[in-house]
Amino acid sequence: MSDIEIFDEVLDNLPVLAKQNPDSVKERLSGLFLDFLELSHLYDSAIEVVKTYLNILDSEFNVKFQRNPIHNIESRLKSPQSIIGKLQKKDLPLTAGAARKNLLDIAGIRVTCYYISDIYAIVEMLCHRDDFTLIKQKDYIKNPKPSGYRSYHLIVNVPVYLSAKKSYAPVEIQIRTIAMDFWASLEHQLKYKPSAAITPEISEELKECAERIAETDLQMQRIFMEINNLD
């Protein structure tokens, strides 16, 4: 997103400024623009820090074990419009400082792995990195959501070395297998389709699909371990 687009989104979502003293509007907008621009840069940089580390781990696995545990890495950064909307819903000040203090999902990464064992290996390495601070974790693989959703969620505080200082930003990381991602992507598409009518019967069918896919996931891992003579 360009600087101008960020400015436009901040401006469009701050109608309250129009009610203030017109002489202060320009100065206030300039400050908000800079704050949100710096916020986006910080969180985008935190995403790059985590992605770089994950790519290093993937390469190391290839050197040691002649295979890559990571199939794909995707990232997303909430737009200023989305951040401001969330602050409004929480009845919080519409500032970058309030966003940093209260929102943990501005930066996100989704890691798709081949096997369940790869997920736990990556989680362990992320949690044991001494410059990452674990904020929150949820294991939806061992404890699936009622819908059938499975994934491992982490939020880690990541150091970003800027020109004049070191800052931290939280990054939400979702780690799942290809099979889990297949179900989650289709379930999300069905659930949030404008004309969607998810009845209890359909919800139950989706959950059954998730359970069958989970069984396949375990079977594929057993095959992999048998072929490679692993315990």
Descriptive tags:
alpha+beta, Beta Polymerase, domain 2, flat
Outline the structure in words.
The protein is 55% helix and 19% strand. By secondary structure, the protein is of the alpha+beta class. A hairpin with a 4-residue loop joins strand 4 (152-161) and strand 5. The chain contains 7 helices and 5 strands, in the order ααβααβαβββαα. It has helices spanning 3-12, 22-65, 80-89, 96-102, 116-128, 178-191, 200-227, and strands at 70-77, 107-113, 133-139, 152-161, 166-177. The protein has a 5-stranded mixed β-sheet with strand order 1-2-5-4-3.
Give a short overview.
By secondary structure, this protein is α+β, with helices and mostly antiparallel strands. The chain has 7 helices and 5 strands, in the order ααβααβαβββαα.
The CATH superfamily is identified as: Beta Polymerase, domain 2
Which shape, going by the Cα principal axes? flat
- CATH architecture descriptor: 2-Layer Sandwich
Count of the domains: 1
Unreliable parts: none
Span between termini: 47 Å
Helix % is 40-55%
Query: What is the number of strand segments?
Result: 5
* Overall average pLDDT: 88
What kind of sheet is the major sheet? Answer: 5 strands, mixed
Radius of gyration: 21 Å
Order of helices and strands: HHEHHEHEEEHH
The helix count comes to 7
